[in-house]
Amino acid sequence: MPRELFANPLTDGSHSRWLDVAETAASVLRQDIVSRDASGETPHYALEVLREHNLLSLVVPLELGGSGEPWSTAAEITRIIARADAGIAHALGYHYTWVWFVSAYGTESGRAVLRRTASESLFWASIGSAFGGSGSIRAHGGGHIVNAARGFATGAPLADVLFTQTVSTDDGRLYLSAIDTASDGVSVADDWDVLGQRLSASTGISLIDVEIGPANVITILPAPGDAPTPLQSLMIPTFQLLFAYLNLGITEGALLEARDYVLERGRPWVHSSVDRSSDDPFVVNLFGQKAARVLGVSAQIGAAQTVLSALLSGEIPITPQTRGQTAELIAAAKVVSHEVGLDVTTAIFDATGARSAASQFGLDRFWRNIRTITLHDPVAYKYNELGAYVLNGDLPEPSVYR
Questions:
Q1: Are residues 290 and 372 in the same domain?
Q2: Distance between CA atoms of residues 178 and 161, nearest Å
Q3: Do the domain assignments include residue 402?
Q4: H/E stretch holding 380
Q5: In angstroms, rounded to a whole number, what is the distance separating the alpha carbons of residues 40 and 362?
Q6: Fewest CB atoms less than 10 Å from the CB: which of 7, 119, 273, 298?
Q7: What is the CA angle 295-370-54, rounded to 5?
Q8: Is the residue at 340 inside a domain?
């Protein structure tokens, strides 16, 4: 199931090479995805596939031992992996984003943990929101004590390092820390039992009186409620765009797998007057309609990514205006990827027919996965946010979902 339908023919150099690596990894993950999804076991195997393909240090800078790719490459790789295995893609996209932000802050403590990430192929998860934190931190001796909890933390059972955002009880500021999951006081639950995204390993996690040293603190940001730093203000738009990429990858995977099913197993309807299901004009029309919508989403996400990349690289200054405009481009891409994803993952069964509903094919996983992901951020509020911007020029105030 190659990517030629959805590939950008203009990619070249290292970017294209890493997309090829991701395709290879995705082909491995696809081989047993139906049985792994049915079991819902923690995806240690899938993570090892990513490690074997050297994908974990992708955005670590070259001088620190990584591949030095931009976040945009990481997002494209997440999209490719999501076509095959949406759960590990979800966790991988988070990993890339945390690692990229640690790199972007450029502190010596951050650089040290990134060297370890590259040399030891470490995997990151997180506990905490970008603006309010998910716990507390206080000074203790020469270091700090952290207490935090999160009802679900994607990739937590797989993680070697936690990107932790906690509010100081001493000065009220937001501390970004990198904490090894092997530390005393870190506890990961086994409570992920959901409709979709079964393989994202989004379990609960808690940190109780975890002791960290100065080297664990990446940077210190303004207190919650204060104006965020320019880079901090881009954390949520970046995650919003990541979700659009995940939606798109799942949707592309559904369409590609439905195509393969029709070509390999499809049976023409008794009244179709054709010998092959792929010649049925209604089936052909359905694939044309859905492919057009998916390609439209891809273009919309690409446009939003171009602007976000310019902000992340410093090509465009980060101001409230540029940040707000970018956030609304991303919001538009996200809501359309939501709508198209739910439509396509449902409609594929009209093309594949009754036999494709058998559990052995697992075609339902695409709808279950995207339905679960799209519940994270109610689309009605996104419409209101975008409408207020279009009608009244209201810029979204940086927050957990904007």
A1: yes
A2: 6
A3: no
A4: helix 379-392
A5: 13
A6: 273
A7: 80
A8: yes
Q: Residues 93, 99, 100, 103: what is their CA dihedral angle, to the nearest 10 degrees?
A: 180
- What 3-state class would DSSP assign to 6? coil
Q: How confident is the model over 36-85, as pLDDT tens digits?
A: 999 999 999 999 999 999 999 999 999 999 999 999 999 999 999 999 99
Among 124, 213, 232, smallest CA distance to 173 is for 232
CA distance 241 to 209: 34
Q: Which of 221, 249, 267 is where one domain is finished?
A: 221
Ramachandran assignment for 204, one of left (phi > 0), alpha (psi -120 to 50 degrees), beta (any other): beta
- Identity of residue 293: R
- Contacts for 313 with CB less than 8 Å, ≥ 6 apart: 70
Q: What confidence tens digit (pLDDT) does each residue in 96-121 have?
A: 999 999 999 999 999 999 999 999 99
| Helix, coil or strand: residue 1 | coil
pLDDT in tens, 320-335: 999 999 999 999 999 9
Structure tokens at 137: 């931190």
Residue 148 belongs to domain with CATH number: 2.40.110.10
Alpha carbon distance 323, 308 (integer Å):
9
The dihedral through the CA atoms of 384, 389, 393, 396 has a sign that is positive
Amino acid identity of residue 39, one-letter, is: S
